Amino acid sequence: MSAVSAAPLAVLAFRQPALLAGYGEAEWNLLLRQCASANLQPRLYYLLRERGELERVPAPARRHLEWSRTVAERHSQAVRWEVAQIRHALAGLDTPLILLKGAAYALAGLPPASGRLFSDIDLLLPKDKLDDAEMALMLHGWASTHLDEYDQRYYRQWMHELPPMEHVKRRTAIDVHHAILPQTAPVHPDPVRLRAAAQELPGHPGLLILAPPDLVLHSATHLFFDGELEHGLRDLVDLDGLLRHYGAEPGFWPALQERAAQLQLQRPLFYALRYSAQLLHTPLPPAALAAAEPGRPGALLLRLMDALYGRALLPAHASCDDAFTPAARFLLYIRANWLRMPPLLLARHLFHKAFLSPKDKDQAAQP
Known about the structure:
alpha/beta
């Protein structure tokens, strides 16, 4: 199926869920495979349940969806437990813990939480608290997963987070951020502004999430500054859920436009609104279009980005690819690295990862 001439079933399912009732077993088989590649199977279950249409799904597909719901519920329970353990470990830090992305959606009960699968838990802390946070987490069983000397320097000097950590017993992962973009990126959303506007989670003293405009902007930034787009459609569905949820609130769209300007995030906001509307038909009022306009790129660049994201945001499944999909994904991967580092640093980093890091790992593996 061409990525540009016809929408894959996984896109149609979230764009026009009324079509699901007419699918036969062959369509459901392909739909489930596409959704699995995008980490969207559990979300599809909840979409059908909300519409009261589970009983209309062919029995084999329904059993598969029920299984995916069980997995998602286990993920939801696990993330709540893990947040409680992190909160206990960092109790002496004397600073609020700001949850990001999936964990924030789950504990706040936001629409993207339904059926969301988790690979890690993301936190935002002040930069001057990172050393204390790392020590406290280590004392409670978390350890760095990137022990290579170069990787340690890469994260601590240039990136916006500690090296990723994993619990030695539970194998759960945590990323502790001090900003939402690397220090070497060309734009620098002020983390002080993000923390100042964060809102406490009811019933969870000391736990916060970003303010509604910042939630949207962080989701957009994560998607459109990242080069790993295998789950790009899942992230776009997250954005669609946030925009539908908050978009009806009075004053949201002007606040989003103002906030994007303050945080230098007008370009990712433009792409977020454009591609959620194009792929998922997210309803955008005139105020939303006005919010997006300051981030619009030039006409030639926009045509290129439409061609790239029109392919790369589809599920990473053979039925969704055309002849140009691999090139589109590769070019967006290069773009993401280009946005994260200046040219000389990027060249040095890529050279080290391509030639020196494998050699170091081989030497470390020798007796």
